[in-house]
């Protein structure tokens, strides 16, 4: 299946840049409106993303579907889906007789992912596809050639959710997705942590001694760095877009001197053999993915929640201690802190007539903390954070992935 790609001017840089400008201008009201939505007491649908359910074996192998809609626009595989009777996601036109709402309509059965279209970056066999299946069993997984395309697929209603990696226990943060979270207007509605079990794959009959090159996603290469050396592989290491894409590339080009770092499922799909199994540098290798949607979910207090925010301050890092103390005073644990360049203002010059000009780098700070936006202590902490920051946005308040720990095994991914 071909991945959704962005080759259209509609998907160019101008749209996200405009969104960023808007975001920074409306900084303060931004998080307030997010909080208002998040903490409102409206009767809500019981969100499936509140309850990540383990995938049912065999239930996630029907990949489908964006192609028919996408094929309509030459040179671009993304189009907004027009309103039509056949599209259940789009309101019907009013000329049709409308049925009155009933109590049943107000409490629909929880959806556990069926019928959801879920965008991920990569091709079938990628870990991101497995993460989409863990987050939404029975979903229609939609492969996208870039992270940016997965964001836009949701924004343009081609997909209902995106599932994207943000950090790995060995390889660290996937910075691109932090930047995209800020540029786009989607909400984090859940997280999944996926044990990542890497294999060394090659065409049938190829032996390790024949190899001159190993290709994979940069994270795959980073996660297996030491094991590759221990295996005595004196090979060039080359980065490609995704792990399964590396396997597909070897098969498509009949490369007998190249191996891929990818999943056992990718070996199956692309007809490769497993030369080495479990080559990640640490057995408990885990990647954390976030689920993104157009609307936030209603935060709750009956299960552990996490909240993700991003903030900046005109005076840069000097404010960081004050911001973090707002959480410490309320006994709120932070689970992650990340900084990225502030693309709107990368450098701040501070002139001192006596000693010259200091050039400070400016950052955006991303913080995840263990509390729900439905809790007063989280709302109070953010009210205080707001006092110290010039920009603050709640990226989402969502259930923590609490699935029991199962170390990576060749069958899990
Ligand atoms: O290349 C893949 O298979 C992916 O799904 C991407 C990705 C990543 O971006 O970190 C996801 C999980 C693993 O950590 C390795 C790669």
UniProtKB/TrEMBL annotation:
Q: What is its EC number?
A: 4.2.1.91
Matching entries from InterPro entries are given as: ACT_dom, Preph_deHydtase, Preph_deHydtase_CS
**Pfam families documented for this protein:** PDT (PF00800)
Which leading EC class covers this enzyme?
lyase
Q: Which residues form the ACT domain?
A: 308-399
- Read off the CDD domains from this record: ACT_CM-PDT (cd04905), PBP2_Ct-PDT_like (cd13631)
Sequence ranges assigned to domain Prephenate dehydratase in this UniProt record: 117-294
The places in or outside the cell where this protein is found are: Plastid, Chloroplast stroma
What's the name of the protein? Arogenate dehydratase
Species for this entry: Arabidopsis suecica
